[in-house]
């Protein structure tokens, strides 16, 4: 990919580097006050190794912040039998695990961070409904964003894993996704996504974290 490593219209104290986070981190003597990552659950074969690299790259008192969804999705009430959304979610977990990049890794971040040596770890659990079934104005608005986001990305999330890993034909995947989209929009299916926000300190210290709460 021909991606420029340096933009021209940026502040003088800002620079871009394109690296593979799973390779050894080579920043010479540079140490960071904050390293932020999100939506990384499909990226790495060994997220723990990447977290360890971040630990070594932080300055004393520095922070690592991670945000990722937790798979599989959850339900406030039992979903119907033969629910396409449940089937899709189980297949995503199966395929990503076979591919060596399990989408269930987000649930282990806190444990890995403790093992690596981070202290004062804060873990916030946040919940987002897939449709407008949940009560409260905040949940209604949030569900619009979440639903639109997943509907727009559904084919991209599914096609490579299902065809290359599970051996499905493209037509089979598209047929499955018709039912998945219908289930996502069905307010009788009380599906929600759990997200986890982690903030960790490399050495002892204190800090405050602000996070939106459910109504």
Automatic annotation (TrEMBL):
It comes from the Eukaryota. InterPro entries: SAM-dependent_MTases_sf. Gene3D superfamilies: Vaccinia Virus protein VP39. GO terms for molecular function: methyltransferase activity. PANTHER family: METHYLTRANSFERASE (PTHR43591), S-ADENOSYL-L-METHIONINE-DEPENDENT METHYLTRANSFERASE (PTHR43591:SF102). This is Methyltransferase type 11 domain-containing protein. The lineage of its organism: Eukaryota, Fungi, Dikarya, Ascomycota, Pezizomycotina.
